[in-house]
């Protein structure tokens, strides 16, 4: 048994009790300060609600009493702006929020950007983006050079894209590869049309994960102007990209040209055949019936299921059976459906 | 519109009784009634009789034909009709009644919407307006005013949203809407459950409900179903706010009884215009 002098144990207990008392006192003081800040913010909003309403809805200048004088009041204005940005869309309101935030709140957010608290830095980045505080873009670019988290990196890209759409692709094309698939999709989805088109032009320079995300986003945006681009990308040897191209066609509700569709039908990759089977509903009925018969003999059950689902849904079971028999007799029927020039989805 | 074959012509105390009854309906349903008084200027009883016969054939079932103590006068009560509808009726009358161009007729049109306007006062106002003979063939009509404003309508407005600041913003926007004849009582609720547990919805007042589809404890669609199951649910005009740009959700909300839909973020001026339109439609 270890023998410790009783004085040592007593001293340890006293030290721990003192530490606990100090910690408790710190917590009480912090709580009190937090309550005071909350009260200040609530009082500020309560006193100025009509002033804010008038300022934001009319093209005037903010009255002096609207200008936040301390951090609590800045937080109150932040809460008000956050609510407006997410709920209200009115002519001129975005510009007024941006103007006010640039003039009176940028100092507060600059301090937070340079702080050591990750949560506060993230909050500052969100607000810079939401409120359009373009006076802090230089600080944001400086921040991007430091060691930052994935989340901060994503927000910094969003900010750069919002304030410098013309140079975004040139400056950040290689940076995009550091994004996760989901972040890449979100960023691409939020892009302005011109920036997105520019990114599409640099498709070959993108990492595979970003290429996948870009093709997915084309499907999500339901923009049929990119169909020729999809057609080109289907020539790739990367099966994953081909699957995503076919999925984008499915999202768009457009049947690819016959060469692409036939390649998918005859593919060794079952996911490609599966996507082709999903397109049956977009095909002219006679072609669809013939392809459905082909898919019903597929090795993969998901492809067969998709074909059966189509046959059931379109109530053409009665028509399929005789055609299946006819198709079985004619092994070269798939090639017969191809148009002479190999173009035009409507010729399937 | 159903037209009865031959209308009864009422008079005297029975006319006053019917007038009071229809006036009560006007106030309850907020549907304006028009009183039309016609007078044949030359006292030609043949034309006056022909007019009366034509009127008995033309009137809708809910319209009332009446006679006064003056033999050259005949009157009409047109429920659910403003002065524009009354003018249209007189123009149709002139077209279908070939004898009308023979004699000069005067007509006074008075909209009835105030509880203190009696039948005697209404007739007196019309007669005063028709004091000067026109002396020309056909019907010459004048619009007359009773001098009584439309009674002020108390309208309740409930705003339901989880965000306190947004509730207050909408409250300020609604409170600043200025519509003649409408007084708004606005209350805000953080949740559908609080509204359900309050007695705020129990009164007869027309009630505009502006609510988000997503609320903390009882969501907007549940509140919508609850309000539409109430026995006097017609009093509610419901405007839903949502972030989901889904046609399916919108179809479901409309089928469940919402009257309007706003997709967040929305323009406050659009919101105000919708509220104004809904409030303006309370009187017709």
Question: What features would you describe in this structure?
Answer:
The complex is a heterodimer of chains A (348) and B (284). Chain A has 19 helices and no strands. By secondary structure, chain A is an all-alpha fold. Chain A is extended, with a radius of gyration of 31 Å. The termini of chain A are far apart. Chain B is an alpha/beta fold. Chain B folds into two domains: 136 residues, Reverse transcriptase/Diguanylate cyclase domain (Alpha-Beta Plaits, 2-Layer Sandwich), CATH 3.30.70.270; 128 residues, Response regulator (Rossmann fold). Chain B is 38% helix and 25% strand. Chain B has nine helices and eleven strands. The N terminus of chain B is likely disordered. The chains are: A mainly alpha (348), B alpha/beta (284). At the A-B interface, helix 1 and helix 2 of A face helix 5 of B.
Unreliable runs of chain B, pLDDT <50, ≥5 residues? 1-5
* β-strand number of chain A: 0
Structural class of chain B comes to alpha/beta
List SSEs of chain B in N-to-C order. Answer: EHEHEEHEHEEHEHEHEHEH
Q: Which fold name fills CATH's third level, the topology of the largest domain in chain B? A: Alpha-Beta Plaits
Total strands of chain B: 11
Major sheet details of chain A: none
- β-strand amount of chain A: under 5%
Share of helical residues of chain A: 55-70%
Query: Helix segment count of chain A?
Result: 19
Spatial shape of chain A: extended
C-alpha Rg of chain B, in Å? Answer: 24 Å
């Amino acid at each position: 048994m270890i023998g410790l002098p009783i004085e040592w144990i007593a001293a340890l207990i006293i030290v721990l009790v003192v530490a606990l008392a100090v910690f408790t006192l710190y917590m009480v003081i912090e709580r009190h300060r937090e309550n005071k800040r909350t009260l200040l913010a609530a009082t500020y909003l309560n006193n100025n609600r009509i002033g804010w309403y008038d300022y934001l809805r009319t093209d005037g200048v903010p009255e002096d009493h609207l200008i936040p004088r301390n951090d609590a009041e800045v937080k109150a204005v932040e809460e008000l702006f956050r609510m407006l940005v997410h709920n209200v869309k009115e002519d001129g309101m975005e510009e007024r929020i941006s103007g006010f935030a640039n003039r009176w709140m940028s100092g507060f957010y600059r301090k937070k950007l340079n702080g050591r608290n990750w949560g506060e830095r993230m909050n500052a980045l969100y607000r810079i983006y939401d409120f359009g505080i373009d006076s802090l873009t230089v600080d944001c670019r400086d921040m991007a050079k430091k060691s930052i988290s994935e989340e901060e990196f994503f927000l910094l890209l969003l900010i750069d894209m919002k304030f410098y759409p013309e140079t975004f692709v040139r400056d950040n094309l290689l940076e995009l590869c550091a994004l996760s698939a989901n972040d890449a999709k979100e960023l691409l989805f939020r892009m302005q049309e011109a920036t997105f088109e520019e990114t599409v032009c640099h498709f070959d320079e993108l990492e595979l994960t970003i290429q996948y995300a870009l093709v997915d986003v084309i499907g999500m945006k339901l923009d049929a102007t990119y169909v020729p681009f999809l057609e080109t990308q289907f020539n790739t040897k990367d099966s994953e990209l081909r699957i995503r191209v076919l999925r984008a066609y499915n999202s768009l509700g457009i049947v690819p040209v016959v060469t692409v569709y036939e390649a998918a039908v005859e593919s060794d990759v079952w996911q490609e055949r599966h996507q082709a089977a999903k397109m049956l509903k977009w095909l002219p009925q006679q072609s669809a019936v013939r392809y459905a018969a082909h898919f019903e003999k597929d090795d993969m059950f998901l492809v067969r299921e998709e074909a059966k689902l189509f046959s059931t849904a379109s109530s053409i079971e009665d028509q399929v059976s005789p055609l299946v028999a006819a198709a079985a007799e004619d092994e070269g029927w798939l090639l017969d459906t191809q148009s002479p020039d190999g173009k035009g989805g409507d010729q399937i | 519109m159903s037209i009865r074959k031959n209308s009864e012509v009422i008079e005297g105390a029975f006319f006053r009784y019917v007038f009071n009854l229809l006036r009560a309906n006007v106030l309850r349903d907020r549907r304006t009634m028009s009183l039309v008084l016609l007078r044949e200027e030359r006292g030609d009883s043949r034309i006056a009789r022909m007019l009366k016969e034509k009127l008995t054939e033309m009137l809708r079932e809910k319209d009332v034909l009446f006679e006064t103590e003056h033999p050259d006068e005949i009157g009409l009560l047109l429920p659910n009709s403003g002065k524009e509808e009354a003018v249209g009726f007189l123009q149709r009358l002139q077209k279908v009644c070939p004898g009308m161009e023979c004699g000069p007729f005067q007509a006074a049109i008075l909209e009835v919407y105030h509880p203190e306007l009696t039948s005697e006062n209404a007739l007196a106002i019309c007669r005063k307006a028709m004091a000067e003979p026109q002396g020309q063939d056909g019907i010459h009509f004048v619009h007359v005013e009773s001098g009584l404003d439309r009674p002020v309508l108390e309208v309740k407005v409930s705003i339901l949203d989880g965000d306190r600041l947004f509730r207050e913003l909408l409250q300020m926007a609604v409170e600043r809407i200025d519509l003649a004849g409408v007084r708004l009582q606005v209350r805000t609720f953080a949740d559908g459950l609080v509204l359900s547990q309050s007695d705020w919805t129990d009164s007869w007042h027309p009630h505009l409900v502006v609510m988000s589809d997503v609320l903390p404890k009882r969501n907007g669609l549940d509140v919508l179903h609850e309000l539409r199951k109430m026995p006097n649910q017609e009093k509610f005009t419901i405007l839903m706010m949502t972030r989901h740009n889904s046609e399916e959700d919108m179809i479901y909300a409309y089928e469940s009884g919402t009257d309007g839909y706003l997709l967040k973020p929305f323009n406050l001026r659009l919101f105000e215009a919708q509220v104004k339109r809904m409030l303006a439609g309370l009187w017709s």
